[in-house]
């Protein structure tokens, strides 16, 4: 049997626990499941332009852009926001277990 | 403190502007009591890890020969990175990596002098934006006094709603980043900021 990654769901909650954004990645792209009025422009921008960030130690930081179609997009977005804001975030990966012969 | 021929060539080729080997010396020899002498500790064109870029590190010394910074000032220039002010455009970006003043050198406007000189240099080189990660008192200082903007304005506004509720303030983010309360900004450690240059 092989585990195939089918979806990733990132839920971003405010410091007080209210859901503010929910994004879902599936092979091919990321969609907005929920966004507050405040956060919707950010969610739309992330999906349209990808995530642009500086990564690495500060005196050796390098730019990196991750397209929203990439499976790395939501885990990296979670890290990126956690470095700046006190949001409560959960990134859930959904796998499907299939027989080896059917794994694609 | 001379730029190497390699660095001058890369900047000239990638920026299409006149760059001289004395540009850094001119920029960093601003008058300030803490800026008696300085040394270029590192410079070069980084080609090993793409995207290619130029970097330099500078150490400053006061009149007694004591170091002014905890670590050398570190800067990088990239030819074509994402611009936050003109998204989704690309343009030349300076990444202001480190400027950590030793405690006894703080609150003497040394950072202001560095910023003013560097901004002039960056504009002459045709750099479109400065990017930085703000730490310690940086989030409040760079936003309120130097006009830097958050790379993620909506997330900052969302964070403010919680902060305002905790402090019994109206749950309405200000229209301008500079109008956020300094105590709120100071809590946003690691905040990514940018400033668009003319």
Brief summary:
Chain A is of the alpha+beta class. Chain A contains two helices and six strands.
Order the strands across the largest sheet of chain B as they lie in space: 1-2-3-4-5-7-6
Average of pLDDT of chain A: 93
The side-by-side strand order for the widest beta sheet of chain A comes to 3-2-1-6
Helix content of chain B: 25-40%
* Biggest sheet overview of chain A: 4 strands, antiparallel
How would the global form of chain B be characterised?
globular
Which value, in Å, is the CA radius of gyration of chain B?
Answer: 18 Å
**Cα separation of the termini of chain B:** 27 Å
Number of helical stretches of at least 4 residues of chain A = 2
Can you tell me the residue ranges of chain A where pLDDT is under 50 for at least 5 consecutive residues?
none
Low-confidence stretches of chain B: none
Total strand segments of chain A: 6
Secondary-structure element series of chain B = HHEEEEHEHEHHE
* Mean pLDDT metric of chain B: 94
Strand content of chain A: over 45%
